[in-house]
Amino acid sequence: MLVAWYDLERSHGALKAGGPSAGTPTRVLGYMMDGDQPIRDGKEVNRFVLLPDAGSAVHPAHRFGDQMIDVQLKPSTSIAFKGSSLVWVSGTWRVLAGSPAGDRPLYQLWDAHVEKADQTEIAKYFR
Fold first, then answer.
1. pLDDT, tens digit (0-9, with 9 covering 90-100), for 81-109
2. Is residue 104 classed exposed, middle or buried when 0-12, 13-18 and 19+ CB atoms within 10 A define those classes?
């Protein structure tokens, strides 16, 4: 299932219709970002946070629970972290407890695989 970020927004605590359900194989396009702790570029990681927007030096990316995905790679797998890089992430979808306005992800892709993406793919898949 290809997921659009607007399908993840929670209204009154419930996931919008059209969003994935737990256990669904899912693919999401987003920006690789650090989570609770800063991660330097080039460090091998097996976990990071995916956001719909990379932000900028002047205006950091918003971090709302229903607009963050915790990415957990397949066991014994790691990738070189590159903050704010656009990537495709494919994995199994999980819904986590928490607040839509909170600072913790409300979603997780586990057993995930990551591929580099290009800016042109945003317009190609999401109009």
1. 999 999 999 999 999 988 888 889 999 99
2. middle
CB-count exposure of residue 29 (10 Å: 0-12, 13-18, 19+): buried
* Mean pLDDT across 105-118: 96
Phi-psi region of 57 (alpha: psi -120 to 50; beta: other; left: phi over 0): alpha
4-21 pLDDT, tens digit each: 888 888 765 556 556 678
**Which residue ranges make up each domain of the chain?**
2-125
CATH architecture of structural domain 2-125: Beta Barrel (2.40)
CB < 8 Å & 24+ apart, contacts of 94-102: 94/22, 94/23, 95/15, 95/21, 95/22, 96/70, 98/65, 99/65, 100/9, 100/10, 100/13, 100/64, 100/65, 100/66, 101/64, 101/65, 102/64, 102/65
On the question of pLDDT at 62 being above 70, the answer is yes
Residue 86's CB is within 10 A of a number of other CB atoms, namely 16
